Amino acid sequence: MLTRSPNATSSVFSLAGSFMRTKLLSLSVICLLLVISAVVCRAQASGNVGYSQSGGSSRAAQNEHNKRVPVQGEAPPTATTMFIEASVLMNVKADEHVAVFGVAQECATVPECHQKMDATVNAFTGELKRLGIGDDDVFVDFAAQNKIYGFQLTGNVAKEKLVGFELKKNVAVHYRDKALLDALVIAASHANIFDLIKVDYVVRDTGSVENRLMEEATRIIKQKVAQDEQLLGIKLQPPAQVYAEKPSIYYPTEMYDSYTAYESEEVENSYERDKYVVQSARKSKTFFFNPLAADGFDLVINPVVIEPVVQFTLYLKVKYEIEQPKSK
């Protein structure tokens, strides 16, 4: 499904705490603002990666559309040949999941950062063991260590100086029960970890999924061949030549969209420019899983989607020779 981008003239409001100095002339009711952006991940669970990604669902739909468009240099069908196409989508529930949490520590020295980081991670892994998650299902990834600079004021000079260090690590947690995520988030909060970066979805047997897609695509092509022969009064000669085989996989991490919806009033300039300070209210974003729709596919396997799923697609294009009548 293609997402609609907000109009360039739409009003965008800042988060609470940001200030804008304006003149007050009049108040007028303006439009409903919808800001839509896409996101990768995953009870529905996305993670904070949703704030940084956009257009995932649109890109997936565009990619599927592009598969069906002839590329430059591709030979078109002739008077004696015909192309038959099939496009299949399969929605597959994940077998396992990996939740990634972000941990950060700011301290005056590097050893102090590492000491506090170790204490935080140990507290988190202790909470995880209470949930039945052992050391083999947890991995701590060293993400970054950098310097922190601040300003020292001397007279009218603000001089930048080193004030500390920041250490960042990511904790990946492997689990199989999808209902466990809420408990993981609560366990992380007990260790003062509040950043759920993303949740990855794992399908173990992708080979059987790909085989099923090929079987269904082949069946659809054979069905279309029979229909064309009957309707057009032609005979397509075997063997068929596989002209294009284009599989794709779309993970929930890529397929989350978001929007902000509200109605507000507009504050316009007045003659007394600095008389008023306007503080905008915080408008919360809504995130939701926005998978590929059935449009453009000959078949959708497992069409009802009530939870985030991994979406497998296959576009198959074959070339047939048209049997020519024998000259008398």
Q: What does this 3D model show about the protein?
A:
This protein has 328 residues and is α+β, with helices and mostly antiparallel strands. The protein has 2 domains: 19-93 and 205-322, no CATH class; 96-202, Alpha-Beta Plaits (2-Layer Sandwich). Helix content is 21%, strand content 38%. It contains 4 helices and 15 strands. The strands form 5 sheets. The chain has a 4-stranded mixed beta sheet, with helices on both faces. Helix 2 (110-130) crosses helix 3.
Summarize the structure.
The chain is of the alpha+beta class and 328 residues long. The protein has four helices and 15 strands.
Give the DSSP E fraction (strand runs of 2 or more residues): 35-45%
Instruction: Indicate the low-confidence ranges by residue numbers.
Output: 1-44
The 3D shape can be described as elongated
The proportion of residues forming helix, as a percent range, comes to 10-25%
Helix-strand makeup class: alpha+beta
Give the N-terminus to C-terminus distance in angstroms.
54 Å
Summed over residues and divided by their number, the pLDDT gives a mean of 82
What is the number of beta strands? 15
Described by strand count, sense and barrel closure, the largest sheet is:
4 strands, mixed
Within the largest sheet, what's the order of strands?
9-15-4-14
Radius of gyration: 28 Å
**Succession of helices and strands:** EEEHEEHEEHEHEEEEEEE
- The total count of helices amounts to 4
Number of domains: 2
